[in-house]
Each structure stands twice: as C-alpha cells, then as structure tokens.
C-alpha cells in the first residue's frame, strides 16, 4: 500500500489544493483532492488485467470550480434536495439558499464540495487511509449549529474503497453526507449498456422539481424495477412520468426505513460491464441510494479538455432520503449535541 501527495493546483481565491494518490498491490489507484474531498480518479484492472479509469472527472482545479455537476465530491451539509430550502427544527424556521430551481441542493451555493479540507494520511496494516476534516460554523448556508466533519477514505488490497462519514454538532441541526462520484466502467460515451441490480423493491416518487411526494412506492411493473439485473438504458426513455420529469433516472431507492443495528452494512447495488469485465458493488449503512444517470451532464468539462455528453456516467449516492427534514415519516436526519453522525459506504471493484 502506498500514498503519494502532490500539489494539484490552487483555487480562484489562492488556496492550495493537494492530490493524494492511494494505491494497492492489486493494481487499483484512487486519487482524492483536498478540494471538496473529490475522488478525482479511480483506476482498476479490467478482465485482461489492464488498468483503466472508471470515474468522470476534471484535469485541474479551475475546471472543477466551473463544473456544476459535483463530480466525485463530498456533498453537504445536506445531500440532495430540501423543498423550497425551508425546514423547521424545534419550532424554529430556517431558510437555506434555493440553488436548484425552487429548492435547496447539496448544501447550497457554497457547500462542502467547494471547501478545501484539512488532510492527513497514513499506511498501516495493508490499508491506505486519508482523513479529511472541515468545520462548518453555525449559520453557514443558513444551517444551525457548528458542525465538525470528518470523512475517511480507506483503500485495501481487495479493491475496496471505504468511505466513513462522521460529524458532531454543538446545537441541534440536520446532516446528510454522500459522495457524488460518476462511474463509467469502460469509458463509453454513455452508461446505457451497464447492467445494474438494486437491492431495493421500493422508491420515493417525486414531483416535477425532484421533491418526494411522501409516498414509498413499489417498483413492481415500473421502469424503476432493478430488482433483477438489467441494462441501465433498457427502460430509461419509456413513456413514464417519473422518467420524463427527470430526463432519466434521478430517484431515491429505499434500502431501509428502520435501521438494523446488528448488521448495518448492506449490499445496495451491483453493476456489471461486460465489455471490460469490470464490476462494482456498493455496500452502505445509509437508508437510501440516489441512482442518477447523469441526465444533465451534457456540456460539462471532461478530462483532456473535452465535454461529457448526456448520461456519460451514473451515480449511486448512498444517503438519507431527499427532503427528510420536512418528512417525519422518513428516517431522521437530525443530529443533536452529544451524538455522533456516522455512516459508511464501500465501493468494491472486481471482474467477471
């Protein structure tokens, strides 16, 4: 196991951004930036042993600052959407920025994806670990409470990248953290041919602004049914209101509504790409996974100075449900003083 550190560039305000490259004995390499905790690159072997890129990303800091698609970034304080940017906590109303039409998205106009995080790293017991920390003061982006956040990336020799999200607060607040990596396991123009299985039989339908209607619906007999493996593109353009509103898949699948404390880490998804032979399995403690097919990627800057096209990659964003602060029937995103927020996600790569 090895970790290499180098300067990646500087932000528009002059802050230095470092890149940390974690590598294992199996040929996997993961590059993570101190800017936004961005997974800038994941390279893994294919069926023939050839190591190749499996994520979308940018070549420099300026491109990341101009990009509006959050590629590979830690998003928060609240991943996904809050209706009209408004919620109540203990009878007090809070108004956040509305940066996605009428709604609040991924922490606001300057969320965790825009922060330069403090970083330390070490190699021990065949694990390469990068620890990122940041402090979010009370009132930042409208959120209550000072939040201290730690995100830990760990690479092992089994080609697993584990992400641990931890946070504490000095006042009641809400928190929902995830990583916004876009995957494409063979570098194709779109992700349609990838085979996906989601270990969920329920999802949360949304209105035309991607806010849940409050219903937890069955996927049975709908294009949302990934309970058995199928190509991502098979049903994506069906005459279905949910798909038409989002331009493809951009919905929350329900993993659990009541946490199982005895076995919290669950298999959420499996992806197979038959041309390269690469596979991806996602495990998480989170109650939901937002499956997004990059419906709005067209025109976003790509590596090598080009542009990504529509649906160039897919996201499996493990997280709490959208608009949870306004939906008491959803798993709670409240964090109180004295409590520790801790969620974990594992990306496991393999071949078939």
Protein traits:
352 residues; mainly beta; Beta-galactosidase, Chain A, domain 5; 27 strands
* Stretches with pLDDT under 50, minimum 5 residues: none
How many domains make up the 3D coordinates?
A: 1
CATH topology: Beta-galactosidase, Chain A, domain 5
Radius of gyration: 19 Å
- Mass-distribution shape: globular
- Helical element count? 2
Second CATH tier, the architecture: Distorted Sandwich
**Helix and strand element order:** EEEEEHEEEEEEEEEEEEEEEHEEEEEEE
- Give the biggest beta sheet: 9 strands, antiparallel
What is the secondary structure topology, with strand pairs?
Elements: E1 2-10, E2 16-23, E3 29-33, E4 39-45, E5 51-53, H1 61-66, E6 74-75, E7 81-82, E8 86-89, E9 92-95, E10 104-105, E11 118-124, E12 127-136, E13 147-155, E14 160-169, E15 173-174, E16 178-179, E17 195-198, E18 202-204, E19 217-218, E20 230-231, H2 241-246, E21 250-254, E22 266-272, E23 278-284, E24 288-292, E25 315-319, E26 334-335, E27 341-351
Antiparallel strand pairs: 1-2, 2-3, 3-4, 4-5, 6-16, 7-10, 8-9, 11-12, 12-13, 13-14, 14-27, 15-26, 17-20, 17-22, 18-19, 18-21, 21-24, 22-23, 23-27, 24-25
């Amino acid at each position: 196991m090895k970790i290499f550190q180098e300067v990646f560039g500087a932000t528009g305000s002059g802050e230095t951004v470092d890149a940390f490259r974690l590598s294992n004995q199996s040929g996997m390499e993961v590059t993570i930036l101190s800017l936004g905790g961005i997974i800038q690159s994941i390279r893994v072997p294919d069926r023939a042993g050839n190591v190749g890129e499996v994520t979308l990303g940018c070549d420099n800091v300026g491109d990341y600052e101009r990009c509006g698609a959050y590629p590979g970034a830690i998003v928060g304080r609240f991943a996904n959407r809050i209706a009209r940017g408004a919620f109540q906590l203990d009878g007090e109303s809070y108004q956040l920025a509305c940066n996605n039409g009428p709604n609040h998205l991924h922490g606001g106009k300057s969320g965790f994806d825009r922060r330069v995080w403090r970083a330390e790293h070490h190699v021990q017991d065949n694990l390469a670990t990068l620890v990122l920390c940041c402090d979010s003061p009370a009132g930042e982006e409208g959120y209550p409470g000072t939040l201290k956040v730690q995100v830990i990336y760990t690479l092992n020799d089994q080609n697993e990248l584990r992400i641990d999200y931890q946070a504490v607060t000095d006042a009641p607040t809400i928190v929902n953290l995830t990583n916004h990596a876009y995957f494409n396991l063979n570098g194709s123009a779109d992700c349609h041919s990838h085979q996906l299985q989601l270990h969920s039989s329920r999802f949360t339908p949304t209105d035309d602004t991607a806010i849940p209607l409050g219903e937890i619906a069955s996927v049975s007999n709908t294009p949302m049914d990934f309970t058995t493996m199928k190509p991502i593109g098979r049903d994506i353009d069906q005459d279905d209101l949910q798909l038409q509103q989002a331009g493809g898949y951009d919905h929350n699948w329900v993993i659990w509504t009541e946490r199982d404390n005895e076995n919290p880490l669950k298999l959420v998804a499996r992806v197979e790409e038959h041309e390269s032979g690469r596979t991806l399995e996602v495990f998480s403690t989170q109650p939901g996974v937002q499956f997004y097919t990059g419906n709005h990627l067209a025109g976003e800057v790509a590596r090598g100075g080009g542009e990504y096209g529509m649906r160039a990659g897919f996201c499996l964003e493990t997280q709490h449900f959208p608009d949870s602060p306004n939906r008491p029937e959803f798993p709670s995103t409240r964090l109180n003083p004295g409590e520790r927020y801790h969620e974990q996600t594992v990306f496991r790569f393999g071949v078939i």
